[in-house]
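tool=predict chain=A
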Amino acid sequence: MQTSPDRHEYPAHWEADVVLRDGGTARVRPITVDDADRLVSFYEQVSDESKYYRFFAPYPRLSAKDVHRFTHHDFVDRVGLAATVGGEFIATVRYDRIGADGTPASAPADEAEVAFLVQDAHQGRGVASALLEHIAAVARERGIRRFAAEVLPANTKMIKVFTDAGYTQKRSFEDGVVRLEFDLEPTDRSLAVQYAREHRAEARSVQRLLTPGSVAVIGAGRTPGGVGRSVLGNIRDAGFTGRLFAVNKALPEEQKELDGVPAHRSVRDIDGPVDLAVVAVPAEHVPEVVAECGEHGVQGLVVVSAGYAESGLDGRERQRALVRQARSYGMRIIGPNAFGIINTSPRVRLNASLAPEVPRPGRIGLFAQSGAIGVALLSRLHRRGGGVTGVTGVSTFVSSGNRADVSGNDVLQYWYEDPDTDVVLMYLESIGNPRKFTRLARRTAAAKPLVVVQGARHGAAPQGHAVRATRLPHATVSALLRQAGVIRVDTITDLVDAGLLLARQPLPAGPRVAILGNSESLGLLTYDACLAEGLRPHPPQDLTTAASAADFHAALSRALADDRCDAVVVTAIPAVGEGSVADAALAQALRSATAAAPSKPVLVVHVELGGLAEALSAAAGTAPRLKPDSVPQNAPQLRPDSAPQNAPQPAAADRRPGPADQPRTAAGEHPEALHPHPAGPDRAPAAPETPEGAHLIPAYPAAERAVRALAQAVAYAQWRRDAADPGRVPEYDDIDVKGAAALIDGLLARGQGPALGPDETCDLLGHYGIEVHRSLPAPTPDAAAEAARALGYPVALKATAPHLRHRADLGGVRLDLADEEQLRRSYAEMTEMFGTAEELRPVVQRMAPRGVDVVVRAVIDPAAGAVLSFGLAGAASQLLGDTAHRLIPVTDREANSLVRSIRTAPLLFGWRGSAPADTRALEELLLRVSRLVDDHPEVVAVTLEPVVVASHGLSVLGASLRLAPPPARDDLGPRTLPAY
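tool=predict ok
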């Protein structure tokens, strides 16, 4: 490491792990004098053409002077960074600060020349783009505002790196060289480019883990039982389509197979590439295994071994070392302490987990940080799936364990891109980067439903999870997730209920619900549940217990054709008697009616109907047919693709091609139904894929569960419609951004803060058009009278001591004092009741027009970012927690919804004959506070309390503001993986 006195201290914070375009990882770090041999070795592996592009002339080898120059940096005016894999260089970048004449310079010169060199074997992986992001961040930190680069016209790849980065740039051509100059200040386009590259790279890194062409299970025991042997058997039994290997260093030399799988003593002995390694050895042996995998070129690891951060401080350090070691070889990790991963795609059929059975194939992506919860979710989806349908099955499943590397954010990026996933269900015990999660969730939810249940809501995160602290309560985080389009539920039962509806049915166009069924009581329960969830139900239609399948079909068809209905809940109870409706007939009747009107969701509430749930979820033409001799004598003889007697059939143009359109055997079965699994007849049958566009009807055992799922779908559908037009952040002519910035800089330079005084607070808010009613101190009765004369009667007398502030109920606030006599009397009463003026700290303030008291707050949370909060002042927000939240910056549409989203909002809109408050003025105040915090990250907290919203206008009666140096924004810097 550099120790020369003219060198700056080694900038360790510049080190970072990055995900490259192909999903592999690389380490970015500063180049030091200790890297001379690595640099020479790296240069020897670069082609003559790449060397020519770098130096504009043949340059076969580096001289000793070159090596010294490229490894000796002061980390200010001369900086070099290297991307490394396995400790060896794969690419380098450097900048040299230059003056206006292009010669070497020092600060305050703010321009630098930049140059790259990427090993040919690693070109096309996005290494140069990642290095550009990092060297640009370093340069900005060192006061450099602009890069210049000279590139040969034939070097189109490097020109594309610069032009695609999104920075503001200009190009010139002189003496056969292209000169590019670009500002380093991030732009909307450069951030968009950065986010897009991050999305693609992280999605690809997860894809490599979930779609391997070859898998090695390291730690597969020689005797049955044990974790490794179980995982090996599960992969084999699932019919994995790739190459599978068992690895155990304790195997005898002569043993070449284990449970019919090729066996080796080391992953090094495997002939050919290994894409994924499942590590199931004791924690103390994992480093040796990781080194072998890295040297063999393994792309990723699933570490099921325990004994890491979940076991204490020693385990946490062991976990850090594991991640650092794996990333040094370009590998990503799921785990440690992971339950495993599953991919049900017929192209993969991977069950690299401890789950003994593969879930049905389907369209749901499932993520669980807990293995136990993952098992419970898989089990519930299996039970609720019914028959062999894959509709409620899983596309991919990831249980991340301690999620030391791959997290829910990474998997979310994959599912956004994955064409086999329509709905995402996530069980999270911690959110490591809420700011990034909300950004990704908003992007995903705009295309696919995202349902989340969060464990450990009222306590610390599990010991194995390294997460940043947040000062926000769980309710606030939940509100922010809902703002991002996340469907937040409280239990895994709700998670499955919502997931089944969203996977099977279209989104409702509104909250109007038709209810029909053969039980009046169950219909009334459903009606009450709809009202409780904020839906708008029609009066239930009772078909009576004598209703036949045809009656259900006709009633459902009418409801679906009614333009006043957005969704239908069908309630059904079992009937007894010769004429009772059979499960299969009722299911077919309901499916037939929905097929004719597929644009509205239909749910069924059933009470112990045995096979109805299974029959409802069985797709037409995909469920195995009963043998003729197994059909009950009294059961209706209905083909799955037929309708009840007299039921209308959907028009041919409305049918989408599916399995029913595929070639059949003479027996009428699909070929895949006759041969359910390629692995053999003794395996569990794999579900055929669901017909495209098929809407299968979810069934629920209780009305409140069905209605709760429907209410979630209604809210999500409304969010989707709103997200299509999110609104805008308005401009206000009277906002003085520069004046506010100068005031903030001056206050911070004088050491002012963190809390500003009343005068400074009023001045800063005034730059954003927010006027605060000034209050004058009243340390004596005479001072109070003088203040009142200056302000003008009527006035208010307030105690500002913390225990009495805003406490009119305790007598700490006296309002509408019309003259000096009333003022002096109130002053005497307050001091007599509560103590001396020094203890009360009274102030006098001019009375504001009567209205509704509200509170507006903004805070910058280190994890979630800037948050704007709103609620009614007093008990509503303090006692009942009736507060709404939005992420900053807030748009005009979001301000409008924020005001209306609290439970006590009717008080602002003329409740019980009162005068409506001026909500337009309130929304403008919210937007101005949002602009202040967004424009000036040094403003870390704002509180306006109370704000009295009158019929016309509003009055800000109290304000406090805190300043601090702006917190680091990891979402604005270069792409990095979490540091270890």
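Confidence is low (pLDDT under 50) at residues 1-6, 386-391, 619-693. The first helix runs from residue 36 to 44.
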